[in-house]
Each structure stands twice: as structure tokens, then as C-alpha cells.
Write a structure and sequence with these properties.
The protein has helices spanning about 1-10, 80-85, 170-179, and strands at about 40, 45-50, 60-65, 70-75, 90-100, 105, 110-115, 120, 125-135, 140-145, 150-160. By secondary structure, it is mainly beta.
């Protein structure tokens, strides 16, 4: 009963974090890169490859070949986020690994500010990385970069200060963006 629950949790909550905002709706189009790089702008050479080490059900991932040591990547502007919503926090996430060796990746998003280092070490093991950023002004975009050749899958840009489980964008959102 609710009385039993109240008794059990009484005095257990020390602090309430009112800055926690959970979104859960992916605001990117083609976040799996399943239609090659449609809706994404990129630098370097990209291609779809089958990667059986990918922890996701879909083993088709996008590989970006970096011919040098400069930072290369993909960017996409979220039309819905910029035209309708005005969140205070956004969270970017992606599954990523290097093609070989080690390197660093970063989210170099526009329209947001980042506290601390945005460079995340990556290697040949798949991992989901994320970054929470504070919305400032201007156009918000999702810019995934690395200083080595890399593979990515299932990008997500969502409102909030907590990464949620990856999900396909809402079909209604997708239809409104395509209209």
C-alpha cells in the first residue's frame, strides 16, 4: 500500500536534483545511417559496412575513413529542435569504435556550451558515448568527429540532461520533417 511505501522511503531521500531533465525522443533524421548519409553532411570518405562485432541487432554501420590526422566527421542540424523547442539542456549520444588502433572522438555541436573536456578516448571496442550540453543561442546541430577512421551507429540527439535508451525518431516527427 502507499502507507507501507511511505514508511519504507521516509527519510531516505536526501536531496532532490531538479536539474535532471529526461527527454527520450530522438530528434535526428536517419540516425542509423541506413539510407547512407542522407540528412548528414560529412567530411572524409564514408561507406556502409557490415560489422559483426557491433552490439546492436543491425550490423550495418557507417565507416568514415580519415586520410590524415585532422578531425573529420558527420553533422546534422535538428530542424525540430531549432524551430519549435527551446530546451536548456541537450544530450548527444552515439555508438562508436575505431577501425584500427586508438583515437579520440568528440561532439562538436553548435548552439551549445560544453563544460570540461569533450574529447573521449575510443578504440576498436564498441561503446555508446554521450555528452550533455547547455543550450546557448543559434542553431543546434549534432556534430560527431574523430581524429582517426571510425565506425558509428545509432546516433541520438535528445532534449534533457540524461541519456536515455536509443530509439528511432517518432514517426510523426519524421513525417513533419519530410513535408
Amino acid at each position: 500500500t502507499s502507507v507501507q511505501v511511505d514508511t519504507q522511503i521516509s527519510g531516505k531521500i536526501e536531496q532532490y536534483d531538479n536539474s535532471l531533465v529526461i527527454g527520450g525522443i530522438n530528434l535526428l533524421t536517419n540516425p542509423t545511417f541506413s539510407v547512407d548519409t542522407k540528412n548528414w553532411s560529412g567530411t572524409g570518405t564514408s561507406k556502409i559496412v557490415v560489422d559483426n562485432t557491433c552490439p546492436l541487432e543491425d550490423k550495418n554501420v557507417t565507416e568514415l575513413t580519415n586520410p590524415g590526422t585532422t578531425w573529420l566527421g558527420f553533422t546534422q542540424t535538428s530542424l525540430l529542435l531549432n524551430s519549435i523547442m527551446n530546451p536548456s539542456s541537450i544530450t548527444s549520444s552515439v555508438y562508436i569504435r575505431t577501425v584500427a588502433g586508438t583515437g579520440k572522438m568528440r561532439f562538436n555541436n553548435g548552439g551549445v556550451s560544453t563544460t570540461g573536456s569533450n574529447e573521449i578516448a575510443i578504440d576498436t571496442t564498441w561503446k555508446r558515448v554521450n555528452l550533455v550540453q547547455t543550450r546557448t543561442t543559434g542553431t543546434v546541430n549534432c556534430f560527431i568527429q574523430a581524429n582517426t577512421s571510425f565506425r558509428i551507429a545509432n546516433a541520438q540527439l535528445e532534449i534533457g540532461s540524461k541519456m536515455t535508451a536509443w530509439g528511432y525518431p517518432d514517426k510523426d516527427i519524421q513525417l513533419s520533417l519530410q513535408a
